[in-house]
Amino acid sequence: MSIQEQISTTQTQGIRKVMLERVDGEQLRLSWRPPLTVSKVTICRSDAANLAEETAHLVAVVTQAQELTFKDPKPNGRSYYFVKFEGGETVAVAERIIPLKGALNFRDLGGYRTADGRAVKWGKLYRSAGLSLLTEEDLAYLQTLELAWICDLRSDAELAVSPSPAIGDAANEQLSFLASANPEEMMAGRAITIDMLAHMNRGMVSNTALTAEYFRKLLQREGKPTLFHCAAGKDRTGFIASVVLQALGVGREDILEDYAITNQFSERFKEQMSGQRDTHAEMLGKLDPEVIHALMMAKPDYLAASFEEIDARYGNFKGYWVTGLGLSMEELARLRSLYLE
C-alpha cells in the first residue's frame, strides 16, 4: 500500500496532512491526519492540476467522517483531487506513486510545502526508475501526463542495454550523471561496501556542471511537465530530486521522507534485476546478501550525506546554488515561480 500525502495548513480544522492511497486495484482512500472527525468535506476531481469549476467533477460530500474510500473514476489516467474542509482551505492532492506495470518508482514530486508556505505544483515534476519495460497500457497512461521533456541520467552503456521508448511528444535527452554507476566500473574501481552509497551521494555534490546543466534545461521548459530518471530511480534520481526540492524551498526532513518512499520498491527491483541477464545482475551475483540489501535500500543517511557535504563546502544550499552551480538568484526565483503555487 502506498501513501501519498499533501501537507496542509488547514488550521481551522487542525488538519496537517491530506493523504490519498491506492488500497486495492481501482480503489482509492482519501484520509487526513490527525484522524479527526470533520463536520463536512467536499471532494472534487479534475483532469487538470488546477481547480476550475468548468473542469471539476464532484466526487462526494462527506459529513462526520475521517476518511472516504471510492472507486477510481479514471484508472487509466491522472486525476487530481481538491478537498474542501468546511471553514478551511481547499487542499490539492494526487497519487504520489503513478500506478504503472512496467516501471517502478514513478512518482510525482508535487504537494510538498515550502518554508514560505507555498507548495510544489502537482503534475509538473516526475521522477522514475528505468522505462525500458513500460507496457502499451503504461505508455497510454503516461501520454496523459503531457510530458515535454525526459532527462535520462544513465550512462551510454546503460542506454545501450535498456533503451527507453518514446512517450508522446516528449523530448528525450541523456545527461549521463554518474559514469561510476556502471556496474563494470563499480566492480573494477573499488570494493562495493555498505557505506558506498553515502560516499556516492557526497561525491555527487561535486558534479556541479551537470547539475547546473539540468537546471538550465529545466528552466527552458517554462514549467511544462518533465521527468528525470536513472536505472533504479534511487541514487542519481534521488540526488537530483533532492536538489530540485531544496531549490524550491522544501525542508530537508520532507526530502528525506520522499527519498525513503523508494524502499517500497526495493524487493521488486531486486527481483527485476536478478531476472535480467546483464551486468547489473552479474554484479549482484558477486555480492554478499548484506551488501545487496544495503544497495537496494534508500536509507535517509545516504542522502543526508549530500546535505552534509553541501553545508561543509558551501555553508548552505544558497551557497551551493550560487557558488557551486554558478546559477543566479534570478534563476532560482524563476524556478520557484514556475513550479510553486
TrEMBL record:
Pfam families listed in its UniProt record: Y_phosphatase3 (PF13350)
Record-linked InterPro entries: Prot-tyrosine_phosphatase-like, Tyr/Ser_Pase_IphP-type, Tyr_Pase_AS, Tyr_Pase_dom
Tyrosine specific protein phosphatases domain boundaries: 212-284
Name of this protein: Tyrosine-protein phosphatase
Organism of origin: Paenibacillus nanensis
MF (Gene Ontology): phosphoprotein phosphatase activity
Family of the protein in this entry: Belongs to the protein-tyrosine phosphatase family.
